[in-house]
From TrEMBL:
<dbReference type="Pfam" id="PF00155">
    <property type="entry name" value="Aminotran_1_2"/>
</dbReference>
<dbReference type="InterPro" id="IPR015421">
    <property type="entry name" value="PyrdxlP-dep_Trfase_major"/>
</dbReference>
<dbReference type="InterPro" id="IPR050087">
    <property type="entry name" value="AON_synthase_class-II"/>
</dbReference>
<feature type="domain" description="Aminotransferase class I/classII large">
    <location>
        <begin position="82"/>
        <end position="457"/>
    </location>
</feature>
<keyword id="KW-0808">Transferase</keyword>
<dbReference type="GO" id="GO:0030170">
    <property type="term" value="F:pyridoxal phosphate binding"/>
</dbReference>
<protein>
    <submittedName>
        <fullName>5-aminolevulinate synthase</fullName>
    </submittedName>
</protein>
<dbReference type="InterPro" id="IPR004839">
    <property type="entry name" value="Aminotransferase_I/II_large"/>
</dbReference>
<comment type="similarity">
    <text>Belongs to the class-II pyridoxal-phosphate-dependent aminotransferase family. BioF subfamily.</text>
</comment>
<keyword id="KW-0663">Pyridoxal phosphate</keyword>
<dbReference type="GO" id="GO:0016740">
    <property type="term" value="F:transferase activity"/>
</dbReference>
<dbReference type="InterPro" id="IPR015422">
    <property type="entry name" value="PyrdxlP-dep_Trfase_small"/>
</dbReference>
<dbReference type="GO" id="GO:0009102">
    <property type="term" value="P:biotin biosynthetic process"/>
</dbReference>
<dbReference type="InterPro" id="IPR015424">
    <property type="entry name" value="PyrdxlP-dep_Trfase"/>
</dbReference>
Length: 496
């Protein structure tokens, strides 16, 4: 491997000798805790006050539908399993590079103050914060920017603060929960969705609004469009340029369709030096607002909202989640700056190149496997991004795999047992009936890990084909069967 590339994570490829109870079902581990948490709680002997009883009742609904969330360390964090899951996409944390850059950044300011001292508009503003905001805005070709605690907070602030009464929000059906939260609380007249990444439906939606809304037709109110550069649960890229051309076309140059782009999954991985999709398409001057999360490829936490000085002013005046909160502290901002110090280096570029190589290897291994056509045709393995992968100049780090709904947890536990940590994405994170597993390719993944993961998919698929054809007497996949056995032993009523 070339110098400066991120360190590789350790591969543990499938082994039959490890007992499932000491690996994926280790006590207090990721899976055991989650499965135990599925179990509906019985009524306590002493009746609870209504407040707690009602909370338990709503949690039980989640338990019954197996959509209850549990705070637990992920499997790759507590074992030698391969991380195909975390947001450390460029492997800047896994390889220790970010820690070194962070300590280096801190060492340049030995007298720094730990706390920020207050809200941004009172005592929480300081030179370093302003400088880093300015540097990051310049990096993305934006006029100005404001750093906030998270992209969730950023989206809530953007959508509650910026739409004026009379404006209409048009959003891609698959935008993130934080955008929904902000839109729901906005002052906009209407919120209208369009089919995911669908240019024709986007055009029809705009045309209908313009035809029926006199203020928008006259150019006195605006349509604000919410899209993401790379979609977190699908891994596909927004056709932003085409959307913007449609907007110009249907408004006949009135300029009252403005775009707000969430680049949570784009920053660090695409565009020059990882500056994102908007920069890649040279649309910096045309997109009104861009949100970058620092919690993924940048390797830190927090977010920046980029836009004009008036946008920044509107955010601090009308964005209550910015107005009424303590501003980001020095160490928090220094971690962000350290991440940005790495994005444009040879190491940053090598990491981006690695992701491309590994994603290509994934699709190549997948689609050239002798079982691929059968699995694909039968719907046993559905990988939407496998279609036309060779023709895409840029491959994202997010790949989703689905199967028949009843098998998705079998697939998930199979991959865990094979030492591959992926994310099983249930409803309500994705629409009902569209559960999937999400694979995140990291710069530090090795070829062996990628090929091992694909092979593990097919080992599982082969078992399923045999079950469906009746050539196997099993009713569930082998790992699912062992997990069910363990659940029975533990007195749990749920089954995979
Ligand atoms: C598209 C998108 N926007 C915003 C967020 C929130 O990011 P953060 O973790 O910085 O709050 C996420 C998180 O996964 C996301 O996927």
């Amino acid at each position: 491997m070339a110098t400066n590339c991120p360190s590789e994570t350790t591969a543990i490829l499938p082994t039959d000798t490890q007992s499932i109870e000491s690996t994926i079902l280790a006590p207090a581990g990721f899976l055991a805790t989650r499965l135990k948490n599925w179990q509906p709680r019985s009524q306590p002997t002493k009746p609870l006050p209504a407040f707690y009883r009602n909370i338990e009742e709503s949690l039980n609904q989640r338990r019954n539908s197996r959509s209850i969330c549990t705070i637990v360390q992920n499997y790759w964090q507590t074992s030698n399993a391969v991380d195909f899951c975390s947001g450390d996409i460029l492997s800047l944390n896994a390889g220790g590079a970010l820690r070194a850059a962070f300590l280096d950044e801190l060492s340049q300011f030995p007298d720094f103050t730990v706390g920020s001292g207050g809200v941004r508009l009172m005592d929480g503003n300081y030179t370093y914060l302003e400088r880093v905001e300015h540097d990051i805005a310049a990096f993305h070709g934006a006029e100005d920017g404001i750093i906030v605690g998270s992209a969730y907070e950023a989206n809530v602030a953007v959508w509650t603060a910026l739409p004026r009464p009379g404006d209409v929000i048009v959003y891609d059906k698959l935008v993130h929960a934080s955008t929904h939260e902000g839109m729901r609380r906005s002052r906009a007249l209407q919120r209208i969705s369009f089919e995911h990444n669908n240019i024709d439906h986007f055009r029809d939606t705009l045309v209908k609004i313009i035809e029926t809304n006199a203020a928008i037709n006259a150019g006195n109110s605006s349509i604000l469009v919410a899209v993401e550069s790379i979609y977190s649960m699908d891994g596909d890229v927004c056709p932003l340029k085409q959307f913007m051309e449609v907007a110009k076309d249907v408004t006949e140059g009135k300029g009252n369709v403005q775009f707000i782009v969430d680049e949570a999954h784009g920053v660090g991985v695409l565009g020059p030096n990882g500056s994102g999709l908007v920069c890649q398409l040279k649309l910096e001057k045309e997109v009104a607002v861009v949100v970058h999360s620092f919690g993924k490829a940048v390797g830190a936490a927090g977010a920046i909202i980029l836009g004009s000085p008036s946008i920044k002013s509107a955010l601090v005046n009308f964005g209550r989640s910015i107005l009424f909160t303590t501003s980001p502290s020095f160490p928090f901002v220094a971690a962000i700056k350290a991440g940005y110090n790495l994005l444009g280096t040879v190491q940053g570029q090598t990491a981006r190149d690695h992701i491309q190589m590994k994603a290509r290897l994934f699709f190549n291994t997948l689609t050239s496997h002798n079982l691929w056509e059968t699995c694909h045709a039968k719907g046993i393995l559905h990988v939407p991004l496998a279609q036309g992968w060779e023709d895409r100049a840029f491959l994202t780090h997010i790949i989703t795999v689905s199967t028949r709904e009843k098998y998705i947890l079998w697939l998930f536990v199979h991959l865990m047992a094979a030492s591959f940590s992926v994310f099983s994405v249930p409803y309500p994170i994705v629409p009902l009936g569209q559960d999937r597993v999400r694979i995140i390719i990291h710069a530090g993944n090795t070829d062996e890990q990628i090929v091992g993961l694909v092979n593990a998919l097919f080992t599982w698929a082969e078992e399923i084909i045999e079950i469906e054809q009746g050539t196997s007497s099993a009713e569930v996949s082998s790992v699912a069967s062992k997990v069910n056995e363990w659940m029975r032993k533990e007195g749990l009523t749920a089954r995979l």
